[in-house]
Amino acid sequence: MQQDRRFINRNKTLWAACTAVLLLLFCFLLFGRLGEVHIADYDEARHGVSAYEMIRNNDYLVNTYQGELDYWNLKPPMSFWLISLAYRLFGYNAFALRFFSALATLLSACAIALWAWRENGRWAVPFVLMIFIANNVVYGLHFARYGDADSQYQFFFTIAMLGALLCYRNIRWIYISGLFFSFAFLTKGLHAVTIPITCFLILLANGYIKQMRLKHYLLVLASGLIVIVPWAAARYLRDGVAFFSGMLSTDVAGRIGAVADPIDADIPTFLYYFTPFTRSPAMLICVALCLISLFTLIVTRHRLSAARRHAAIGSLLWVVVPIVFYTLANVKFRWYVYSCLMGMPVLTVTLVYGALEAVSVRKLMVACLSFAFAGFAFSAYMNIQNVLSTTFDQTIQGFLKEDLDRYLDEGIHAYIQYSENQQTTWMQGSVLTAEMYGDVICLNGGVEGYLSDEESAILYISKNNNISEITQLQQDEIVRNENYYLIVFEK
What we know:
Layout: H1 2-31, H2 43-57, E1 64-65, E2 68-69, H3 78-90, H4 94-120, H5 124-134, H6 150-165, H7 174-188, H8 194-205, H9 214-225, H10 228-239, H11 242-252, H12 269-272, H13 275-278, H14 281-300, H15 306-328, H16 339-356, H17 362-388, H18 395-403, H19 406-409, E3 413-417, H20 428-438, E4 441-442, H21 446-452, E5 457-462, H22 467-472, E6 477-481, E7 486-490
Parallel strand pairs: 3-4, 3-5
Antiparallel strand pairs: 1-2, 5-7, 6-7
Helix pairs in contact: 1-4, 1-5, 2-3, 2-20, 3-4, 4-5, 4-6, 4-16, 5-17, 6-7, 6-8, 7-9, 8-15, 14-16, 14-17, 15-16, 18-20
């Protein structure tokens, strides 16, 4: 008896040590050198600017870009609020811009790990964490280390799906799904429509729909609208239907047939959404484990418990429904289906633990898991190397970051003229950098705008392709002259 107790204690200690090490490693991959990457134009920069200008305007209802109402980035304000909060907590920098994206992915993985622990035992926790650590897509664009709405959206999507999976314990868990749908909608808008579709199919496929009564439907509806309706009403009172019509025309109608990256245009739509799997060795390993587990269950005729069977069906729908939905919509934006990457660990753990129950093939399954964990470990090592090698490689943003001072330059009008085609419109990443580090007012117009501005102003101009303009400006003070790229004029 005493020997058994010592074995159990050693087992718990080993589990705690493994879990702690994996959590620390995961946190390093999420937060390590998070602010050292240049700010990406478009989504990341636009989110950062909108959040920054909400603080500057003291207006947390409508988002602006360079001081004007933004009808390009037609997302509800949840992600802007979170980035604004991070600015308040950590200052105006790229780390703050991305903090809640990294935290959202950490919370998503922890939520799935806790669910797996409850359903399969404590060793499912390091299993889940290892999958996340090894998945290189998690650390790429539109995910954990990127300052836009997608990672937060995936967190709300994940909790909504886990709520649907837990309905086998109590149908009232579906209210959690409704509530987190409302948060997801407030983050990504109409993209969140896949949540109620998937939840409904999970309830239908697992027979939970029979437990639903009128009060359940009403309460689910109420939980799903509880934060959407007040925001929508407040937004309507500000600018009528302009924002909502833009959401429909741009984020729905405008996306049909659209391609995020032109190099993907020739990929058939029904194959396009397999790329998040084919570009992630960890996901390919998960697919292999699922297929091996299914084959084992069929050959051994082992019947899964009702709870595990419902979890397998539900997580399979979690993975498949978004892919089918956006394939039918003929939309090629890879990150639209990143929710399937959150569902794969659930499906993998469920099927693997089910196959391990088949005693006759347990040694074979353990051997397969050993090879799988070797693959996970190699992928994790590559992810660590990528984070360690992160460098700031954006010349213009680096120049702005070094040159500007929030206390000295606050409120000054700032113009820029690039070398390529003498562009005089600020690039989004440059706008955010200039606002965060200098609190300047970024105005378009380049040299002409600078010369016609009657107020105090500064001009950033490239040495390349702007020689005549620089000669014309010699009467103004050169505050900085860097050999590698820009000259700064001030008047």
